[in-house]
C-alpha cells in the first residue's frame, strides 16, 4: 500500500524537466520535496495528477499497486490521489459549497445528505477559521492568496484522499495564515494518509513534521534525509547540494 513514483521522466513543450525520479510514500508518512526554482517540483506534481501540459514519457505512477499513469485526473482522484496546485484556478459561477458537494458525490459514488454535508462543511470551515459566508462565494474567484490556500486545505479535509500532494501551499502566507493552514494539514495527517509537501522553504516544516526530506535539483532527487536536512538547506542554501549532485 503506497503511492509510488517509479523512474519518472516528464517533458513539457518538448523539453525534459524531470529525469528518472523515484519515490515511495506509504500511508502514515510525510515526505517533503525541497528545491530551487526550476528544479521540476511543480512539473512533478502536475504531471502525476494528469495535467495535459505535462507528459510522462517513461516510468509509472502507482497507487496501492495500481498503475494510474495514463488515467485522467478525475480517475486518479477516485483512485485516492489529491493535488493542491501552486496556482488554483478561479471558477466563476460555482460556489465553494456546491463544488465540494458535487466533488464528494463523484468521489464516493453516493448522494450526499444535504444537512449532514452542510454540518460537516461548517465544522471544517470553523477549524480553518473561515467565515461561513465563504461557502457561498465562487470558487477561488476574487480570493486572496491566503484564502485560496485555505480553500485548498478545506477541499483536502472534505474529500479526505488517501494520498495528498501539496504544491507550495505555504507560498504567500503570512505567519498567522501559515499556522492555520498547517493546523488543517495536521488534522488530515493520520496512519491512513500519505502526504507529499513540495516547498522552497523550511518554515512550513516547523509546523508539519516530515518523516523524510528530499532535495530536488535539475529534475532529480539528489539527497534524502530527515527533518535535519531541511535545516541544513536553510543554513547552507541549495547551491551546496547542487555542487554535490
TrEMBL record:
Residues 3-243 form the ABC transporter domain. The keyword DNA damage does not apply. It comes from the Bacteria. The keyword Ligase does not apply. Coiled coil: none annotated. One of its GO terms (molecular function) is ATP binding. Keywords: ATP-binding, Nucleotide-binding. NCBIfam families: sufC. Belongs to the ABC transporter superfamily. Ycf16 family. This is Fe-S cluster assembly ATPase SufC. The lineage of its organism: Bacteria, Candidatus Magasanikiibacteriota.
Amino acid at each position: 500500500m503506497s503511492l509510488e513514483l517509479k523512474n519518472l521522466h516528464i517533458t513539457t513543450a518538448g523539453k525534459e524537466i524531470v529525469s528518472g525520479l523515484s519515490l515511495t510514500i506509504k500511508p502514515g508518512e510525510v515526505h517533503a520535496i525541497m528545491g530551487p526554482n526550476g528544479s521540476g517540483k511543480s512539473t512533478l506534481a502536475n504531471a502525476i495528477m494528469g495535467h495535459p501540459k505535462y507528459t510522462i514519457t517513461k516510468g509509472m505512477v502507482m497507487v496501492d499497486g495500481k498503475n494510474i499513469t495514463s488515467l485522467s485526473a478525475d480517475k486518479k482522484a477516485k483512485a485516492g490521489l489529491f493535488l493542491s496546485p501552486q496556482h488554483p484556478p478561479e471558477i466563476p459561477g460555482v460556489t465553494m459549497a456546491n463544488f465540494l458537494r458535487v466533488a464528494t458525490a463523484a468521489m464516493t459514488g453516493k448522494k450526499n445528505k444535504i444537512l449532514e454535508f452542510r454540518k460537516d462543511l461548517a465544522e471544517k470551515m470553523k477549524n480553518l477559521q473561515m467565515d461561513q459566508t465563504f461557502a457561498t462565494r465562487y470558487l477561488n474567484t476574487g480570493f486572496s492568496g491566503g484564502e485560496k490556500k485555505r480553500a485548498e486545505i478545506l477541499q483536502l479535509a472534505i474529500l479526505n484522499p488517501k494520498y495528498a500532494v501539496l504544491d507550495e501551499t505555504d507560498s504567500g502566507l503570512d505567519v498567522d495564515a501559515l499556522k492555520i493552514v498547517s493546523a488543517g494539514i495536521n488534522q488530515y495527517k493520520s496512519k491512513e494518509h500519505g502526504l507529499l509537501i513540495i516547498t522552497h522553504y523550511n518554515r512550513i516544516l516547523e509546523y508539519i513534521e516530515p518523516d523524510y526530506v528530499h532535495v530536488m535539483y535539475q529534475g532529480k532527487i539528489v539527497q534524502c534525509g530527515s527533518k535535519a536536512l531541511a535545516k541544513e538547506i536553510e543554513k547552507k542554501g541549495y547551491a551546496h547540494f547542487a555542487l554535490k549532485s
